[in-house]
């Protein structure tokens, strides 16, 4: 076992082998979560990620809420909502909404798939470090669960004004929220790196690809 | 005496968490990320982002967040009047949630980050575990302030019936969105290891201010 350091207080520690399922190791000095117990998690992560991606695509493409104001029917998808802000010349805000509800969740799930799918078969994915780093940067900006609460609040606000009809995307966003919460518990960065250490390089990764190109040139 | 990685000249890779002697390499041998003992310029960047968030907090609360135009006149609402509207219309539980997300969380973030920065600057040794916990709480709750931005977005998109009612976003919500983003960036810039560095400071200068 090699020593590790707590990422929040820099305490030098020797990691212990965790055996009980769902057990977690915490830093004795500052209480930060260090690592979890990980056995056969990649498969679960993969299943949840595919399910979450399906829900996300559905949630983006269908209307979230419909509104009936005295015979005038209006409904909106996430993209329509961002576009409405854009039309009101609030481009920055439109970008922020698009980024936090569509682009970042899409990127997050895509990146997890990119990292975990080859690892699950025992291969090292291309650009693992770069994708992993971007994933860590993107994670705080994916705010699906906040958006779900936002939809609920606007439903209540609008119900005084008109008849509100929850759309199909509403349920998808709700389910997505649960899946993302489960994923964030399952994905354990140290475990992913351990899986990477144990995996073998892809046949055309790095040197092999360069040699292949050189041979053709 | 506790032993930190920095006191042994070991740097933790920010990307993959691997420990590497800083004397041997400037980049992580496993993933290639640049190595530092502490986030470079953490305190300075955190102060700058925090102060800009504090400045924008005023227009976010004072300016109009959303304007409702109808044949009966124009109605303007701010962050607080939105909460009051929910409260008066009987949705108390929701009023509390919105109040927490749009008033309590931003205030808590600005005040506690200031406290963390000041206590690190004074090299305080008190309540270090509690301060670590406070920092983790900030990372967790910061995103929930985006609630108001989403509510305004959805209302603007849905209520666009020209003859009856039109909702237009006000300048206040832009300022509020900026407060949320800036305070999240400030939290990310802060290096929680500085809280503990008073006990065993890194061996050479350049770790922080």
How does this model look, in words?
The complex is a heterodimer of chains A (217) and B (209). Chain A has 217 residues and is an alpha+beta fold. Chain A has eight helices and nine strands. Chain A folds into two domains: 1-37, no CATH class; 38-197, no CATH class. Chain A is globular and about 70 Å long. Chain B folds into two domains: 1-37, no CATH class; 41-195, Butyryl-CoA Dehydrogenase, subunit A, domain 3, CATH 1.20.140. Chains A and B meet through strand 1, strand 5, strand 6, helix 2 and helix 3 of A and helix 3, helix 4, helix 5, strand 5 and strand 6 of B.
List the helices and strands and how they pair.
The complex is a heterodimer of chains A (217) and B (209).
Chain A (H helix, E strand, L loop, with lengths): L3 E2 L6 E2 L10 E3 L6 E4 L5 H20 L3 E5 L2 E5 L1 H10 L3 H30 L2 E2 L3 H11 L5 H15 L4 E4 L1 H19 L2 H10 L1 E2 L5 H10 L1
Parallel strand pairs in A: 7-9
Antiparallel strand pairs in A: 1-2, 3-4, 5-6, 5-8
Chain B lengths: L9 E3 L6 E3 L20 H21 L3 E5 L2 E5 L1 H10 L3 H30 L6 H14 L5 H12 L1 E2 L3 E5 L1 H19 L20
Antiparallel strand pairs in B: 1-2, 3-4, 3-6, 5-6
List keywords for this structure.
heterodimer; A: 217 residues; 13% strand; B: 209 residues; Butyryl-CoA Dehydrogenase, subunit A, domain 3; 2 domains; 4-stranded antiparallel sheet; elongated
- CA-to-CA gap between the ends of chain B? 24 Å
Radius of gyration of chain A: 22 Å
What percentage of amino acids of chain A are in beta strands?
Answer: 5-15%
**Number of spatially distinct domains of chain A:** 2
Q: Categorize the overall geometry of chain B.
A: elongated
Segments of chain A where pLDDT lies below 50 for 5+ residues? none
- The run of helices and strands of chain A is EEEEHEEHHEHHEHHEH
Mean of residue pLDDT values of chain B: 87
Q: How many individual helices of chain B?
A: 6
Oligomeric state of the chains?
heterodimer
N-to-C order of helices and strands of chain B: EEHEEHHHHEEH
Biggest β-sheet: strands ordered side by side in the sheet of chain B: 4-3-6-5
Helix tally of chain A?
Answer: 8
- Let me know the average pLDDT of chain A: 86
Low confidence ranges of chain B: 205-209
Helix content of chain A: 55-70%
Identify the strand order in the major beta sheet of chain A.
6-5-8
CATH topology of the largest domain in chain B, anyone?
A: Butyryl-CoA Dehydrogenase, subunit A, domain 3
Subcellular location (chain B): Cell inner membrane
Protein name (chain B): Paraquat-inducible protein A
Keywords (chain B): Cell inner membrane, Cell membrane, Membrane, Transmembrane, Transmembrane helix
Main location (chain B): membrane
